[in-house]
Structure formats: structure tokens, C-alpha cells
Amino acid sequence: MTTRAPIDLLPRPAKLSRRGFVGGLSAGILGAAATEANAETLADVPDRGPGADLSAHSERSRFAKLDRIPEATPGKRNVDPGDAINSKTPHQKLVGNITPTDLHYERSHSGVPDIDPAQHRLLIHGMVSKPLVFSVEDLKRMPSVTRVVFIECTGNGWENWKKADPDVTVQNTHGLVSTNEWTGVPLKFLIDLVARDKGANWMLAEGGDGAGVDRSIPLTDEIVNEAFVAYGQNGEPLRPAHGFPMRLLMPGFEGNLNIKWLRRLKFGNAPWMTRWETARYTQLLADGKARQFQLRMETNSVITQPSGMMQIQPGYNRISGLAWSGHGKIAKVEISTDGAKSWKQAQLSLPVLSKAQVRFQMDWVWDGKPTRIVSRSTDEKGNVQPDRQSFIAAMGTNALFHYNAQQTWSIDEAGRVRNVLA
Amino acid sequence: MSSHDKLLLAGVLALGLLAAPALAFDFGRPATPQDIKLWDIDVGPDGKGLPDGSGTAVQGKQIFADNCAACHGDNGVGGIKDRLAGGQGTLASNMPVKTVGSFWPYATTLFDYIRRAMPYPTPGSLSTDETYALTAYILSLNGIVPADGKVDRDSLPKIRMPNRDGFIPEAEFDPAKLFRKK
Questions:
Q1: Are A138 and B27 inside 8 Å of each other by CB?
Q2: Entry's InterPro entries (chain B) (predicted)?
Q3: Taking CA atoms, which of A104, A120, A339, B49 is between 20 and 30 Å from A230?
Q4: CA-nearest residue of chain B to A270?
Q5: Which CATH architecture has domain B51-165?
């Protein structure tokens, strides 16, 4: 993956002290744990020598502490894993565009089933000429596609609907979106194999988990051309938490539609009105009506560095974050360092892919005065990430899902970064 | 035909097979009616997919106490998991209470969800009649069927849920308009 060399939008401050520079970096990038002592001079760097034995499976450095946060409902964090309904990605400690496989966020409705792929089957039936049963090996023999896409739980951002807890990280506020490379069989190929009937414009996708999570999917041209049944994740078989041995991949659409442990596709001519498209994943508006089939994930972005619970020093700081849109590619990301009064365009780390997260960054010299930083993304279709006030005016505060308002971080005179509402 | 010719012919045939476009029969196997019957559990809002059988709210009360109350509370209120009853009239307030009675638009979804997902530790363990009985009981807790009411495949799709008109389809994916010929 190539990255465009950063252009300094601002000249380096001439009087940048070494101490300030180190302080700025210590805000927490890469999640390195505090070492025993910093190497002040090169003589303090430990001598070289033979390292540990090579192994069949490489582990992260013991100095890199990276963990997801299991969560129950909004505000109930670090719960017992038995009570968790999701587990969030530590975006404040990550770099680049791809989420490490073991840190991809997870939302599971009935735990993580332990499925032997030899005993897993995919049944495709309903309004088709040739109902078929496939094994995992059958799918692996078929033509495949590989694509980098984000998956986002519709609950991403749900911490901030009604209030902003100041003492949370970006992992709490935006940890329910991740980007991986997925490999699998195009839905179109499977549709052709079973010979879908004319008029079979809806498809029920059902999982092999305890809850049998199922969703109705409208077979628009976009979905037929882009959806696929994935068995590969970042080059390896899917992790169980992400649907092993196969899941539906719906680029740009609600995470819940990307049915994990997929075992049935049924074609029909109307939605089934399942629990997950009526009682859940509908957005209650202020007037008591609920938006339904709001299937596409909106234009979004968040600054991950610096972000909630970090502390920065006056002087040079690099602002970095992630942007994504279910409509296509991100066209631009703008950053304000004065509480949304003025905006500057950030750089995007190439390549900018459709329906994938992209890293943005910008140089910033903080003058040490309290301020607010915020990002807003615009996608290739012209959708602009809304400011919180206009967003809440349209959606109310009860929707629970599909929160994509701009995220504001306040910075006080001590450099403490906190979650606030704009 | 000489043995050389036979060899050549065999080679041409083999090549021909390799070059032929992949046939549908190359992937998977036909699903039998028995296969489909075993897994075809979904129920639509029109009642399609509902099985034969029935259950009453009175029967459901005991089944609920035995299988559901531990998580959902007595009478579907006050448990550690989703509240199932009450909440009507709260959806436009600052503290909306979304339950089967106040929010769910279709009674068929309740049968489908109980059958596929509940009880949480042992989904699929209840009989069809028990599932109908639980459906009737939860609806009765919300005043939607009488306390001595009964539901079956004919009556369930005819029940009009209080919040049936409470949903606004997103324009892009509105089932009433999508795929209509222009």
C-alpha cells in the first residue's frame, strides 16, 4: 500500500523543543506501553544479541498493548465477556487504513459459534429454478473477488446521542467500524447458479448462530454487483468472531446485513420483516415514528490522534484520523482546530478506496490555548458529514443507530483531550 | 483407429472438457425438498411460513414462567434482558420504551423470532404449539389478544399491532416503491 509523502501544510516551528516533540508523540500512538526508562543517549540503547526462537505463529511485541473493549449497552463498558454484545476496535492505537484482524470490531447476537467447516452448508432456495446446497470447498472452487471494505455496526457513535461522557476514548465513541480485506464468491455468480426467478428482488440471508440472525436484502443492481459471500479475511480464513467459515459481505451497508456464519439465502419478492429490521435497526425519530430500511452507512469521519483521554503539548502536533462512506470513495476531509469556525483540507493516505476507511492527516501547531478540534468528510457523491446540531435536528436523540455527526474533541489549557458535544 | 489416433482423440476430448464453460452442476448439489423443509423456518408478515398448530395465552403463561421469565422478568417486565410489555405512548418521549406492544409492527415477527432464537440457551427447543402459546401470552401481556386468547397460522397475520403504521421506509429502499417498473 502506497502512502503519499506528507506535505507540511505549516512550516516546522523553529523553536520546537525536543521535550515538546517527545511529549507530543507520547500521546499514545501505536499503543506502546511505557518502557522502564527512555534511552536518553544512544549509549542507553540495549546491546544487540540473539533473539527469541522463531515460531509457527508470530505474536505482537510485549510492548504493544492493543485490546478491544467488550461492551454491553452504551455506557456499560469493560463488562464481563458473558454480558458483552459487542467488542470495539482501539482506533486511538492504530495507524494506516487496515484494521488488524484480531482487533476488527465484533457484534454477535448469540455468542460465537464453533463451526467445523466440513459440517457447514449453505442452502440457496426460494424463488429460484435450481435450489442448491454448497459446502465451503464448493465456494472455494468458484471464481473469487478480493476487496478492502469497511464494516460498521449501526450502533457506532451511540455513546453521543444524548450526552457526551468526557472520559471516553475514540474506541468508545467510534470503535464499531473496521476495515479488512475480504475474499469470496460474488453474489451474482451464486444467483446465476441457482437461476433466480424474475421478480425475486429480495433475498433473506440467515446465519448459523444461535439466534439465526436474518435480514431482508433488496437486490438492487449495486448490491447484486458488489455483494459477495466471503470465506477469507486479510488473507486467511475468516476468524470465528467474524463468521467462519463464511459470511455475507455487503460493502457500504449496515454491519448487521453482513450476515455471519451464513447458512441460508432465500429469494422472494418482499421483505420478511425480521426482528432485526423492525424491532432493531430502525431509527426512532423525535415524533415517535421510526425510519426503516435505512440500510446504507453514511459519510463519516473521526480524529483518532489526538483523541479522547490523550494529552498533548503546545507546539507541533499531527492530527490523524479515519474517514469512510457507504456511498463510495471519500472525496475530502476537512479539519477545524478552532471549534468549526475555519476548516483546512487534510491529506488522504492513498489509495482511497470505495467503501473503505481512509487515513487522513494534517500538521498543526497548538498555541496552548483551549480549543476544539473536529473533522468532517465529504464523499464522491457530495454527501457531507453533518454537524451535530443539524444532525440532531433531523434525527432527534432517540434513534440509537446511524449516528454520523461530526465528532468534536475539546482540548483544555493543560492539553487534555475530551469528548464533547458541539 | 490406430492407438495413436485414439490417444489423440482422448487428448482432444480432455482438452475440450477443460475448456468448456463451467456448468452449474459443477458446484454444490441440488437441494432436496427434505433439505429445504428442515431449514426453511422464516415467517413473512403475510403469514407465509407459519406452521400448523396453535397455542393459548393461558398455556403460554406457564411456558413463559419456565423458559423466559429468568431473563425477561415476570410478565415480561423488569428482567435483565429486553422488556416485552408496556411502553405504549412513550415513543415520542425522551425515554421511549420499545416493546413488542409499543414498537413491533408485525405479530408474525414475534412467532418467527421466538422460534429461531429463543430461549437464548436452547433455541429450537420449544414445540410449534408452545411457540404459538408464548406468542399469544406476550401479545396478551400487551392487551393485543385477550387473556384467554389463542393464536394460529390464520389468526396471527390478521392481528394489527398498535405500532403497525409507526415506520417510515427509507426512500432509497422503500419496499413499496423499489423494483417497480418506471
A1: yes
A2: Cyt_c-like_dom, Cyt_c-like_dom_sf, Cytochrome_c-type_DH
A3: B49
A4: B175
A5: Orthogonal Bundle (1.10)
Please give the pLDDT value at position B129: 98
pLDDT of A29 above 80 = no
The answer, yes or no, to whether residue A299 has pLDDT greater than 50, is: yes
**A422: exposed, middle or buried (C-beta count within 10 Å: 0-12, 13-18, 19+)?**
middle
Do the chains contact at A288 and B166, CB–CB below 8 Å? yes
Q: How far apart are CA A246 and CA B134, in angstroms?
A: 33
User: For residue A36, what pLDDT is reported?
Assistant: 60
**Chain A: closest CA distance from residue B167 (Å):** 5
How close A278 gets to chain B, by Cα (Å)?
Answer: 6
Mean pLDDT of B152-156: 98
Q: Which domains does chain A have, with CATH numbers?
A: 19-32+296-420 (2.60.40.650), 103-283 (3.90.420.10)
CA B1 to chain A, closest CA, distance in angstroms equals 37
ipTM summary value: 0.90
* Minimal Cβ distance to A290: which of B35, B113, B166: B166
Q: Computed from CA positions of residues B101, B106, B111, B116, in that sequence, does the dihedral angle turn out positive or negative?
A: negative
In this prediction, residue A37 carries a pLDDT of: 76
Backbone torsions φ then ψ of B141, nearest 5 degrees: -60, -25
Which of A123, A211, A290 lies closest to B167 in CB terms? A290
Distances (CA, A) of A113 to A268, B117, B122: 28, 14, 13
Provide φ and ψ at A268, rounded to 5°. -150, -170
Q: Closest to A289 (Cβ–Cβ): which among B28, B120, B168?
A: B168
Continuous H helices in A116-216? 136-141, 170-174, 187-194
